[in-house]
Amino acid sequence: MNHVELVVTVLRKMSDFKLQYPGKKALQKLVYLIGRRGVRPDFHYSIHYYGPYSSKLDDTVHSLQLKGIVEIVPDGMNHRVRLIEELQEFIEDPHLSEKESQEIEYVLRNFGTLTPYDLEVITTADFVAGELGKILKPLTEEAIVEGVKKIKGDKFPDQNIRDALAVLKQHGYVWN
Q1: β-strands 46-48, 78-83: how paired?
Q2: What is the largest CA-CA distance in the chain?
Q3: How far apart are the first and last CA of the chain?
C-alpha cells in the first residue's frame, strides 16, 4: 500500500462507518495512530505545534485535492478532508492485507469520534513516550508527563496526559 492508498482507505472507511470526515489535524492524528499499529507506509512524523505532524501526509492530501479525488472544505476552525462522493466508485480499492484492514478499522472505531484536542493529547503523549522510551529505561509515567509539558507547556493538564496514557495502554500502544 502506498501513501495515497492509505489516505483514501482511511477516508473511505470513515465514510463507511458513518464517521464525520476529519479535519486536517484529526486526519494527521488518526493516520499517526494507524501507523503506530504497524500499517505502512510510514509518514515519518515529527513533533509540531498540534502534536505529531507529517509533511508527507499533508503533501499527499493536497496532491489528492489537485487530482480531484478529495476536497478540503472549510468548516469553522477546521478544514475537513473528504472523498468526492461521485468518484468513490471509480477509485480502486487498495490491496490491503486482512491485518492492515483490521488495524485501520480498529483505530477508526476507537479514536474516530474523538475531538481534535483529545487526539492531540493522546498522540502527543504517545510520541513523547516513544522518543523518551529510546533513552530512558525504565520509562515512567512521570517522565512522559514532564516530556509533554516541556513541549506543550500548560496546554494539557497533567491528568489529561495521564488519562491519554491509560487510553493508549488500554489499546495496546507500548513504548519499551
Answers
A1: unpaired
A2: 52
A3: 28
The number of residues in the chain equals 176
Q: Calculate the alpha carbon distances from 170 to 23, 56, 102, 173, 174 in Å.
A: 25, 29, 17, 8, 10
Instruction: Give the C-alpha separation, 91 to 88, whole Å.
Output: 5
| Mean per-residue pLDDT, 54-81 | 94
Give the pLDDT confidence score for residue 1 in this predicted structure: 80
- Element holding 150 (H helix, E strand): helix 141-152
Per DSSP bridges, beta strands 70-75 and 51-53 are: unpaired
List Cβ neighbours of 104 (8 Å cut-off, separation of 6 or more).
9, 10, 13, 34, 39, 96
Rounded to the nearest 5°, which phi and psi values hold at 165? -65, -40
Q: What is the pLDDT of residues 135-164, one digit of tens each?
A: 998 999 999 999 999 999 999 999 999 999
**C-beta of residue 109 within 8 angstroms of C-beta of residue 17:** yes
Q: How far apart are CA 169 and CA 147, in angstroms?
A: 18
The model's pLDDT over 35-45, given as tens digits with 9 standing for 90+, comes to 999 998 889 99
